[in-house]
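Structure in, sequence out. Go:
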């Protein structure tokens, strides 16, 4: 399955600069699409460190959402989607931090974008 990420205008305005850690506000479609775009443009070790920090924050946000839906007794599908997304974010983080392969990380995160969008549709 192919998930297309939206096109962005100005990199600075839409996806944030690649030469610094960007604030991560969520794990929604636009946030993950912007992170994918930054991964695709990251070529130096310094860039990878910034992407790792951003992925740490995404993981923390997904983990918090997962704990909350479990606490609320949410449907199993919501829990399963968040668990899958959390596992995927961990894998993407390792592709960046261990393998130093931001292109592979971007490809993998596209599947995460699909999971995030599917989760968002369960929780409008």
């Amino acid at each position: 399955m192919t998930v297309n990420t939206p096109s962005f205008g100005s990199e600075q305005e839409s996806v944030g600069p690649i030469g610094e850690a960007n604030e991560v506000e969520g794990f929604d479609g636009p946030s993950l699409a912007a992170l994918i775009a930054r991964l695709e443009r990251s070529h130096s070790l310094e860039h990878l460190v910034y992407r790792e920090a951003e992925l740490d924050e995404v993981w923390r946000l997904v983990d918090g959402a997962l704990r909350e839906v479990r606490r609320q007794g949410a449907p199993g599908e919501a829990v399963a989607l968040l668990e899958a997304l959390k596992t995927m974010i961990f894998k993407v983080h390792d592709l960046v931090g261990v393998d130093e392969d931001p292109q592979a990380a971007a490809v993998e995160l596209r599947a995460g974008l699909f999971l995030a969008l599917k989760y968002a549709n369960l929780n409008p």
